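I had to read the description of the data format several times before I understood it. Each protein is reduced to its one-letter sequence and a matching series of backbone shape codes. The format is easy to grasp once an entry is in front of the reader. For illustration, here is how one protein appears when written out as sequence plus structure tokens:
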Amino acid sequence: MGSWRRSEAAALPPALRARLGILAALAALAVLALGILYTGRSTPGPLDERLGTEAYGVTSPWRNVALALDFLGEPAGSVALVTALVAGCLLLRRPRTAVLLVVGAALTVGAATLLKSLVGRTIHGDNLSYPSGHTAFATTMALALALAAAGRPSLGRTAAVSLVLAAVVCAGAAMGWAEVALGAHYPTDALGGWCTALAVTPATAWLVDRAADRAADRAADRTAGPRGGRPSDPSSRSTAPGTTEGTAERMADAGRREHR
């Protein structure tokens, strides 16, 4: 029963671990390949043209939509969003998902920031652009919530995979479009941010589950220890009246007294 409950509340549902592990590996390779391709560059590449650089410079009302999405990735907006989502997860008794939202966001954005320094791709002067931290953040939020929903026992494996993919595609596409539309990133920057989240978040979810399971096992061991009923050494067995050992000892003593 304990293992079933842990699986149901897992940050990374066991049924999806293999598939998301493969996806994370492919995403990491894509991040690496794009980073090598655009190292030190400051202009859009052929892939950027294919992905849609015409999104640059949109006007109202779409610019307002882009600004609203962009705000969710800014420090004030991201803190407010994470706080609201964590509160909701705790109310729904999903503590592992709450931890994943915080730790996953920190690690994903941290990885994106580190990659920006390593790759050195710039836009509008000296602004580091690859990969997009905003897109990575939005994708991580969507993936964490989708994994929580996909862990429901009533949801089949195919439906769970479809839900997760739909969530990350929609979140990544929306934030990626906003960043390109506002001129903050090239399309491949957004793609790199999306892949960064897909590479980091599943691994983070697995680590959250592993740490939580170990903590639960240690707590269970401490609880069971005093009541453990583990057999002690023979010298400590009870010889109180009414027990088998006590009765045998009294009979032996009576026999010794008769032979004296």
Residues 187-227 form the longest helix (41 residues). The chain is about 70% helix and 0% strand. Residues 1-8, 231-245 have pLDDT under 50 and may be disordered. The beta strands are 122-123, 127-128.
